[in-house]
Amino acid sequence: MNIVYIIAYLILWPLYRLLKPTKTIHREHIPDGGALYCCNHTRMSDPLYVAYALGWPRQIHVMAKEEIMHWPVLGLILKWGGIFGVKRGGADIVAIKTAMKYLKAGEQLLMFPEGTRHTDGVAGDAKTGCAMLAARTGVPIVPVYVNAEKRWFRRNPVVFGEPYYPQFAGKKPTADDYRVIADDLMVRIKALEAEAV
After folding, report:
1. Distance CA 43, CA 76 (A)
2. Span 3-195 CATH architecture
3. Is residue 86 scored above 80 in pLDDT?
């Protein structure tokens, strides 16, 4: 267990517990072992809601935009806590290898398939990175939904969908397979919205 992750979790948890508490829906869908959690993205705080919904014993790594990792002081804390950056707009081999290392080691990774925030809550198109990582590492995808608006002094739902393994016809998935898997993932995430109450 990452000690920096635990310290940050315990410092921030009372604040969120009081001001914007989390409500975990379908905790039974959280698998043991390695898993790729794929969530819609509406606010910078979304990773905290997913982490608190999972509970502190389950450390989750987060793939975040590279720019955050260069923020003074905070960037270092995030890195030490298990968050790593990805350069958007192209294939970031280092980020892909880091993600695959965590997943193959049986750890849990959070990604945002849209690649950017949609503050209005309207889902965007998914990139194919999540599909590629799940297919190559053999871990299940867990769709996750969080509301765009985080309510003050009321429980904010985090809905976990059923874990599943992406399907493809050949021995190795093609670019078209990744596209189909990514589109299907966004449909699954959107379907969870009805339960986010």
Report:
1. 21
2. 3-Layer(aba) Sandwich (3.40)
3. yes
